Description:
heterodimer; A: mainly alpha; MetI-like fold; 2 domains; two-stranded antiparallel sheet; extended; B: mainly alpha; 12 helices; 0% strand
Amino acid sequence: xxxxxxxxxxAAAPVPRAASLAAQVGAAERRHxxxxxxxxxxxxxxxxxxxxxxxxxxMFRSVDNPEVSGYLPQTAAxxxxxxxxxxxxxxxxxxxxxxxxxxxxxxxxGLIGRRxxxxxxxxxxxxxxxxxxxxxxxxGATKAAFLAIDEKWRDPAIWGVxxxxxxxxxxxxLLTALDLEKxxxxxxxxxxxxxxxxxxxxxxTLTVSLGVTAxxxxxxxxxxxxxxxxxxxxxxxxxxxxxxxxxTSLLVRSTAWVxxxxxxxxxxxxxxxxxxxxxxxxLIFNRAGVFIAMVHVLLPYAILPIYSVMKGISGNHLxxxxxxxxxxxxxxxxxxxxxTLPGLAAGGTLVFVLSVGFYVTPALVGGxxxxxxxxxxxxxxxxxxxxxxxxxxxALLLLVVAAIYLALGKLVGFDRLRVR
Amino acid sequence: MAAAxxxxxxxxxxxxxxxxxTTLVFIFLIAPIFVVVPLSLTAGQLLVFPLPGLxxxxxxxxxxxxxxTGALANSVFVALVTTVAATTLGTTAALxxxxxxxxxxxxLVALLVTPIAVPVVIIAVSAFYFFxxxxxxxxxxxxxxxxxxxxxxxxxxxxxxTLQSFDPNLPxxxxxxxxxxxxxxxxxxxxxxxxxVASGAVFAFVTSFDELVIALFLTSPQQRTxxxxxxxxxxxxxxxxxxxxxxVLLIVSVLLMLVMEWLRARSQRLRNPLETA
Lengths: 420, 277
């Protein structure tokens, strides 16, 4: 019915001139565009508000420095004007005394103490002690009073910290995450050797991720080759065998490995029963367990892209090379391997990007020495409550992941990612 | 494989070797997952082979203990709400992306898919930091909002892929016959892209149902999900009830995978009706 009505209207309408037709088309297209933008708006706003905003706020935390300027405002002002060299004068001590008096009986004292303790262990204790014994009013001898409470107030390191942390922004957390610090003179230098923990952490994260990537490619490549050369029925069965672990929750798979790799677990019991070993092997809560479980979790991510590239390679190329007299190894090296390289690159990138961010699997099957950067982001958030450092580590991890995507992202394709 | 007889011995050795290797790899991939199934049926108290006998006691424990039933109920509730919301949002977004060409489109696409590329521990900690400031930590709403943000890209990607093979003349035909845009959507576009939307929904459900890291940061004991309950059990002391819970997760995953493969086959058939005889 509506169809008849429309065609009637169209027939009755006068034939429009070209210009007004163009205008009508333009108006219709604009209407269409607005309609499409209206369809997009809810998702874009949702993602902006519940993904981009939290991420941006958290990243900002790595340079944010609200504590000193907020809780010790007068001290911060004096410190900003101070050169940072030598001993500060009476005015600096008086400002600090005034600030401490204001927050003496509030939770703020604990918060600023914790913040300064990150930069210089022992600062919290010094601050609490000083705040407690502070003279009631200024008598022009605050400096002497401070020194009477504790000689440490003469230490340039103390005032160096206050000077450096008095700004609204700080490089402190990012430097700490790189095992660097600022000397009281403001020079950037490496921290003492026994405090260098983060470079080790990145080395470990990279070693594990690269090792897992290499193993996944080495194991996945021949498997994908066999799958791509199988008949359609066998291939679809094998694909199913890859998809089942791909779809099974990471937690279930990690749990299974915890059970299997224990000292009394199935793996050790079988090996002992077979007479291969006498004593159970240490397979869990160490690096071996992390490798076994991570390769198991990530192998499908390597096999699937390699398989999809191999499936598209025509056997004619290989037959042509062989008919020209190339021995099999040479056919593989000069024809097959270069043709499958895009699949290897995609699978390798995918596995690497996923493994650098791993948290759950190493937490369950690894020991204390096998935890990667993701674990420490969680640790500094939950246990140590050092947001700045958690954020700095997060920023570095995000930087690595983003750099890999910008460099190699076209190889991967977002639709293959499923991180759980 | 009639030519197999002409293959030289070395090549045949490579072929046989690679098949044996492949079989071993498939055992490595599959066996550890299914080892939890017999263990969950043990009549004993320990997770060891040989089983002292078969029993459903750990499933009885799982389905009667309020700790586990509560976790299961939470997981199902959060996953269902996430699925409905993410599928609706993601499908409308994919339709909008498909139907319009404008200068900033690549930026919007990047914005919509980025959440899958970011390590989930960063998303979890960011959500915890932000939600703490607006009192959403330890609420169902907070967990659901974070799960929607995580699941949305999968729906956008899946539905967009389906729309790419969608004939743009069909909605034009509907419009030329006088159907309103809404009616065209309801009676032409949506029925055709339905398998893609359903795949997106399956992805969204599984993303939320299996998600652990965000749940670790955002839930209080009241909203604990099944993965969270399993995780705390594994970190402390693995009881056979955990293997029963793992089997429940496993069954859900395998069922959803089968649904997904069925949808994929179906949409391929719709696309090339002549190809599958």
